Amino acid sequence: MSRAVQILLAIFSGLLLGFSWPEISDQTWLVFFAFVPIYYLLDNTKKENWRSLFLLSFLSFIIWHLISVYWMVYSTVIGSASAWLVNATLMATVVSLSLFIKTKAKKIPIEVILSLFWLSFEIMHLFWSLSWPWMDLGNVFANKTEWIQWYEYSGIYGGGFWVLLVNGIIYRTLKLIFQTNYLRAGFTFSGTLLLIFTPIIFSNYLFTRETPSTESIEISVLQPNIDTYTEKFNGLTPLEQSNKIIEQLNSKHTAKLIILPETAIPENFDIRDSIYPKSINQLLKWTEEHNKQIIGGFYSKDSLNYNSALLIEEGKIISVRHKQKLLPFGESMPFDWFYKVFEKQIARDGGNTSGFGRDSEVRVFDLRPSTKFGALICFESAFPDITSKMLRNGAQILLVITNDDWWKDTPGYKQHFAYSRIRAIETRRFIARSANTGISGFINEKGQVLQSSNYKSEALLSSKCYLHSQITLFSQNENKYRFVILSFSFLLLLTLVKLKT
């Protein structure tokens, strides 16, 4: 196979991945063929040529990133380039590592090897300094919720395994056809169809299954539409923003519980103080006068600064939850040495080289008399581990508070909204979403969008949200799933070491 053909295959794989991604196109089915060229390269590369496989895979994955998340450059140039390069490098490393295992443990199907290492890589993204699960393979079905109702059992990990397994079987089918082994190819093709359509048929059954009636609560979500670049942090004062929010809340009927977006009022204050800034005080006064509850995003501090969610009830701050999953380069510096080189550029991009503090545990908000809410702050809504912990801590409804104006009118804010649909299915929880601008609205436990706002518009939406207390199989066992995946991957690595010795 010539070098030119290998490069074309790598490019083709990257294009298929990119154009299968949510909000880039509606051709999600392309993902079932996107790894076929990768499997071909894996199958036709000798161990000593692993560097060539690494570079070809890297080419595929960097193209995927450039198509799917090009919009990141609007918020941070350094962070975007770093995320793309690091992610593509790690993905290519997974493929190369699978080659080494394949050549030594020949009885283990390559689909299993690649899936285990790939999912282990995605799990790593939940916890290390460069956490960025945005490109997890299971996210590709975010707008195909009728295909993935079974995520309540497997979560996003099942989606990634499904993609890699189907691609591997399709490659095997094509290989048999080219070998003119049509009988075996027919059987393999039948297996491929079963592998694709059985989960979809099961999903449609789950989709039409009636949900038992439960108690409900009315919630209002506010979208103030304050421009991030010209108003939020340097155009309007915190007091002016507080006035704007109150004026909007007074414009129409609202539920007793109101959700405000991330950094609704961007003024840093210590909630332990007896005297708060005027911008905060007048919002507290409004809740007292109108007998309202608010959960929203604010900056808070003690010895550290935090991006926080606060529960305010009738003039008092009842409880606080600090963001745990911080955005690399925007809210935290992954590596100490990095900012010394790029500090000025990061500051120009709006990043914070000093970083924010993190909460020590996953907290949920208790509303009287007995309702519990899990509030996800922006980037956290891409993390299945944190929503699972919220359910195990009693959350009956999930909230997403965010500011999606950083990426302007691109697929970025749309992808972020779509990922909330996955969290709804994994947890079988209603989701109320408040964005400064982007998309605010309501999603039910099946991932269906009940209401949504438009980008760059003021909105105040209200909906009845149903409370669910049963914990899904995935949310109950998400940490165990991670342990099993990582354990099997470790055993594969041990096999390689043993065979080398």
Q: Please, could you describe this protein's structure?
A:
- The protein is of the alpha/beta class.
- The protein has helices at 3-20, 31-34, 36-43, 50-68, 77-104, 110-124, 151-178, 182-208, 228-232, 238-249, 278-290, 336-348, 384-392, 411-427, 473-500, and strands at 216-223, 257-259, 265-269, 293-301, 305-313, 316-322, 365-367, 371-377, 397-402, 431-435, 441-443, 449-452, 459-466.
- Strands 1, 2, 3, 4, 5, 6 and 13 form a 7-stranded mixed sheet that branches.
- The chain is elongated and about 80 Å long.
Describe the structure using short key phrases.
seven-stranded mixed beta sheet; six-stranded mixed beta sheet; 501 residues; Nitrilase/N-carbamoyl-D-aminoacid amidohydrolase; 15 helices; alpha/beta; 3 domains
| Class by SSE composition | alpha/beta
* Average predicted confidence as pLDDT: 92
User: Helix count, per DSSP?
Assistant: 15
Q: Compute the gyration radius: what is it?
A: 24 Å
Main sheet summary: 7 strands, mixed
End-to-end Cα distance: 32 Å
Number of domains: 3
Q: Uncertain segments of ≥5 residues (pLDDT<50)?
A: none
What is the compact description of this entry?
This protein is of the alpha/beta class. Helix content is 49%, strand content 15%. The model has no long low-confidence stretch (mean pLDDT 92).
